[in-house]
Specification:
mainly alpha, 83% helix, 258 residues
Length: 258
């Protein structure tokens, strides 16, 4: 016990020597590390449960469908949140919250269009090529429904990027931990009660994704509404000169040429 007390005192003395910015960075890094560690742990637990209960064939079908959807949607996401962070940080340094709201609106609009486009593309491919890729019958609805649920990540990314603009790393990490915990609980419970039932499993995963998205976006709105509410009527025209940052080419090479 004395050893632990001495170590605790030593850490406190060391922490006091840091400047405020370093302390803030250390705290933020700690929250991010905890959230990432918890997410990795839950992902490991889910993988073991899914493979053991669903079995090789059903798990293979699920993995193939999910991999196809996620890969397609990642291609169509266009890294819009990166553009939001890049230019939102400039507006924040200028204390132009009206421009921050404008760029958030613009980002949400583009993300919504990208999400709808991804659902349309995946829906067409699924309807016309289902039997080519998937051997288990009657999963078309679940695959398209999962494409919809997963497309909500496009909007989630904007909410998370907005929180980062205001250095809400703690809140961001807490939201992520809540989402990981909720999804793990729903998936494990479904596997426990329904066993190797792929339709029930898809329903659980889809429900978890939708609930996670609601949690993420409502929490972000609640956290930022006081700061941004006076500027909610800001028009997108305020960032007219910076709209080109959302070109897929610029976003992919991570650079902007003025």
């Amino acid at each position: 016990m004395p050893l632990m007390a001495n170590l605790s005192d030593s850490f406190k003395k060391l922490f006091k020597r840091f400047d405020p910015e370093s302390k803030n960075l250390l705290k933020n890094s700690s929250w991010v590390t905890v959230a990432n560690t918890l997410g990795t742990l839950f992902a490991f637990i889910k993988t073991i449960a899914i493979t053991r209960i669903l079995g090789v064939e059903l798990f293979g079908t699920y993995a193939l469908a999910i991999a196809f959807i996620i890969t397609t949607q990642e291609f169509l996401r266009l890294n819009i949140s990166m553009g939001l962070i890049r230019y939102g940080a400039i507006y924040a340094s200028e204390d132009r919250k009206d421009k921050i709201v404008a760029i958030i609106k613009f980002s949400l609009g583009l993300s919504t269009i990208s999400a709808l486009l991804s659902i349309l593309v995946l829906g067409i491919i699924t309807v016309f090529s289902y039997s080519t890729f998937i051997k288990v019958p009657n999963l078309t609805f679940y695959i398209i429904a999962f494409a919809f649920a997963n497309s909500l990540n496009f909007i989630d990314a904007i909410s998370k990027a907005s929180l980062k603009l205001f250095y809400k790393f703690k809140v961001n990490s807490i939201i992520q931990m809540m989402m990981d915990t909720l999804e793990t609980a729903i998936v494990i419970s479904t596997l426990y009660f329904y066993g190797a039932n792929l339709e029930a499993f898809f329903t659980a995963v889809i429900s978890a994704r939708i609930l996670n998205s609601l949690t993420c976006n409502l929490a972000a709105y609640r956290e930022l509404k006081i700061e941004l509410k006076p500027y909610l009527k800001s028009k997108i025209e305020l960032i007219q000169s910076h709209k080109k940052i959302f070109s897929p080419i610029f976003l992919e090479i991570h650079s902007v040429v003025h």
